[in-house]
Design a protein that fits this description.
This protein is mainly α and 120 residues long. It contains four helices and no strands. Helix 1 crosses helix 2 and helix 3 packs antiparallel against helix 4. The two termini are 30 Å apart. Keywords: Membrane, Transmembrane, Transmembrane helix. It comes from Micromonospora maris. This is DUF2335 domain-containing protein.
Length: 120
Amino acid sequence: MVVPGASDLHGATHQALAEALAKHGRALLNEASRLEAAANPGLAAPMITPGMIHDAETLQRIGYAQSGKAADRRNWMLGSLAATFVGGFFTNNLTEPWGAIGFVVCGALALAFFNKGSQT
């Protein structure tokens, strides 16, 4: 693939551009494959069309497709949910020192996990 103006770049800069384009291309192809799998009922051979590539690029550009992040996001959110449930146990024992400390710790963990999951 030729990018206008890329030949004028320094060697390391040209290499960084090539790596970024390859990474973007892999993500774009993965998203197009996902779109194809959703459109293909399984009776025909898989075929990615130019329209699917365009749609995948549009979805990535506007932020709907964030490849490779769903599992990490899910795990952080599950951690937040688990900390919330465990915090419920400590809520029943807020009058005890260990209950109050456990509640605060679980609340802080839930907020930290949720924040990390939101940024992933």
